[in-house]
Amino acid sequence: MHPHGPEAIHTHEVPPEADQGRLVAALCLIGLFIAAEVVVAVLAHSLALLSDAGHMLTDVAALGVSLIALRLAQRPPKGGLTFGLKRAEVLAALISGATLLVLAAVLVFEAALRLASPVTVQGGAVIAIAVVGIAVNLAVTYQLSRASRRSLNVEASFRHILTDLYAFIGTLIAGIVIVTTGFERADAIASVVVAALMVYAGVRLLGKAGRVLLEASPADLDPEVIGKALAAHPHVVNVHDLHVWELTSGFPTLSAHVLVHPNDDCHAIRLDLERFLEEQFHVEHTTLQVDHAPPEYLHVERLVPDRGRSAH
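-> structure tokens emitted (312 positions)
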């Protein structure tokens, strides 16, 4: 059950386990590595290393945006922002996803040019930097895996880093192929694989962020199931205008109009329904309008679809 009134808003601060210190540590580690990787990539003429460096540069941007978003989301409600800036993290995830797709397109274009006209690549240098890159990304991935993955913002940063880890593994394989066989196009092929991973991660992030911004119901909450559960309450006559959405990741919200029998205690039933929603569906922030049903509602279907929407 979620308390109502101004004091209720403050119970939904960003979870403390969304550790900003871990993001800062990851940001510093990646920043130092990027500088070294760019130098080696230029000297070795490796597009795969440059693509990795470019992707890691977006990681730096993603981590930076994540840190800013976390700070903004923790600000208390003020003025017209009655929920504060909690959706800042969703906007950050949206930016991260879009960045991955744009960078993937650039890499595919450059890889196509390299496949048509391959250049000499220093396979040994590629192998060396790839091994170091794998070690760095394993360390960063470990840091972020211990932070709050419930936060879409932290999840976006984690996906960036995880994609980097896969990319360096592909780059290592490309370097080995170049050294052992002399097949220079392996470098460009590795870049295409990296781009495909970026597209996959980017689309997932955009999809999750888009659901929140479109105020769709959370993926693990079925409005129809919730509506039927509420309507099955022995004192409930009718449930309509039920809406389930997510204010930000990990913050499901529900509102509904509930009609009960004429002689029932509306306040007691509302508390009972709120407690039920919290225990059964883990929805803490609820706004239920509970009224006595007029006579014409005593013989209609308990669950009435909202206008223009499916029954919730």
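The beta strands are 236-246, 252-260, 285-292.
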